[in-house]
């Protein structure tokens, strides 16, 4: 029986992909779903140590924000 990936929640689809790593159709459905919902923002690659440190600081801040929310 073929699973209908369109009716699965994101968590169900993720669990299915983990449980069935050779199912390429499921993997493509997973990537398509998460890519479609991803923000369209892009960021340049840090070009200096200062920029790398700034990115690390922003990531730490975001993680702290997520912990408290």
- Element string (H = helix, E = strand): HHH
Largest sheet: none
Q: What is the end-to-end distance?
A: 40 Å
- What structural category characterises the helix and strand content? mainly alpha
Q: What level of helicity do the residues show?
A: 55-70%
Number of distinct beta strands: 0
Work out the radius of gyration.
Answer: 17 Å
What value does the average pLDDT take?
Answer: 91
Strand content: under 5%
Spatial shape = elongated
Summarize the structure.
InterPro entries: DUF6887. Pfam families: DUF6887. With 69 residues, the protein is an all-alpha fold.
Q: What labels describe this entry?
A:
69 residues, mainly alpha, 64% helix
List the helices and strands and how they pair.
Layout: H1 10-19, H2 24-37, H3 49-68
Helix pairs in contact: 1-2
Commentary on this structure:
The model has no long low-confidence stretch (mean pLDDT 91). The chain has one domain (10-68). The protein has 69 residues and is mainly α. The chain contains three helices and no strands. Helix 1 runs antiparallel to helix 2 (24-37). Helix content is 64%, strand content 0%. Pfam families: DUF6887 (PF21826).
């Amino acid at each position: 029986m073929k699973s209908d990936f369109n009716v699965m929640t994101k968590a169900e689809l993720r669990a299915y992909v983990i449980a069935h790593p050779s199912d390429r159709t499921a993997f493509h459905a997973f990537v398509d779903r998460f890519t479609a919902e991803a923000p369209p923002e892009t960021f340049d690659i840090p070009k200096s140590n200062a920029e790398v440190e700034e990115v690390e600081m922003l990531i730490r801040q975001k993680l702290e924000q997520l912990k408290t929310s």
